[in-house]
UniProtKB/TrEMBL annotation:
Family in the record: Belongs to the class I-like SAM-binding methyltransferase superfamily. TrmB family.
Entry-linked PANTHER family: 3-DEOXY-D-MANNO-OCTULOSONIC-ACID TRANSFERASE/TRNA GUANINE-N 7 - -METHYLTRANSFERASE (PTHR23417), PENTACOTRIPEPTIDE-REPEAT REGION OF PRORP DOMAIN-CONTAINING PROTEIN (PTHR23417:SF14)
Protein name, entry field: tRNA (guanine-N(7)-)-methyltransferase
UniProt binding sites for substrate: 126, 158, 197-200
Alphabetic keyword roster: Methyltransferase, S-adenosyl-L-methionine, Transferase, tRNA processing
SUPFAM superfamilies: S-adenosyl-L-methionine-dependent methyltransferases
Binding-site positions, S-adenosyl-L-methionine: 43, 68, 100, 122
Organism domain of life: Bacteria
Function: Catalyzes the formation of N(7)-methylguanine at position 46 (m7G46) in tRNA.
Gene name of the encoded protein: trmB
EC number: 2.1.1.33
Catalytically driven reaction(s): guanosine(46) in tRNA + S-adenosyl-L-methionine = N(7)-methylguanosine(46) in tRNA + S-adenosyl-L-homocysteine
Length: 218
């Protein structure tokens, strides 16, 4: 279910230093945002931000950008980050942008991104909405425009139909399937070092198998 709109969410987001306004200004120069050159990783549809904060904590040698299009969801991530930073942590390698992911090629330069994470994306179950799925061939083409040649897209979901759709889209596109599992948490090799999202923890605790694939450009 979508979070209900939070009054004042848009104003709170605009006033937050962790959210980059007019991100297209930094196309080709995202190092300037962080003040240091590091590999750049994106999470598209970051939800409440737990995954990215965990990744930023585990990988201080990387820069991370969380992408979310809904004000109310982004605000939840900001509130969560505020709680963590008030407790003494600092995420100088993590920023957020509030934008529709269809605009990625307008925000990041070709070969500027080292990796992309897609976690429990909206399945858009109606056939007429297939192009909105973040693993559709339309979105895969957008990732090609910003991702380095050896960069990977990592996708996790508990939605079997969406996963099988995604596999077909990869098969018919300019991507190679590097890794594929229909039950991540029972794959001893792949689950090692796996960083869980809030949804993943919730779904897997109910016994739902988690699917994962990693793809790279041909």
């Amino acid at each position: 279910m979508r979070l209900r709109n939070i009054p004042g969410a848009k104003d709170a987001i605009l006033e937050c230093d962790w959210v980059i306004d007019e991100p297209e200004r930094f196309k080709g120069k995202w190092d300037e945002v962080f003040g240091v050159r590091r590999p750049l990783f994106l999470e598209v549809g970051m939800g409440k931000g737990r995954f990215l904060m965990d990744m930023a904590r585990l990988h201080p040698e990387r820069n991370f950008v969380g992408i979310e299009m809904y004000d109310s969801v982004l605000l939840r991530a900001l509130q969560k980050r505020e709680e963590v930073e008030d407790a003494g942590e600092d995420f100088s390698n993590l920023v957020f942008i509030r934008v529709d992911a269809r605009l990625l090629p307008e925000i990041f330069e070709k070969d500027e991104v080292d990796g992309i994470y897609l976690n429990f994306s909206d399945p858009w179950p109606k056939a007429r909405h297939a192009k909105r799925r973040l693993t559709s061939r339309e979105f895969l083409a957008r990732y090609e425009k910003v991702l380095k040649k050896d960069g990977a897209v990592e996708f996790k979901t508990d939605n079997r139909d969406l996963f099988e759709f995604s596999l077909e889209e990869v098969k018919d596109s300019n991507w190679n399937l590097e890794v594929c599992t229909f039950d991540l948490h029972h794959d001893e090799k792949l689950v090692e070092g796996n960083v869980m999202t809030e949804y993943e923890e919730k779904f897997s605790s109910k016994g739902n198998p988690i699917c994962k694939m990693i793809i790279k450009q041909k």
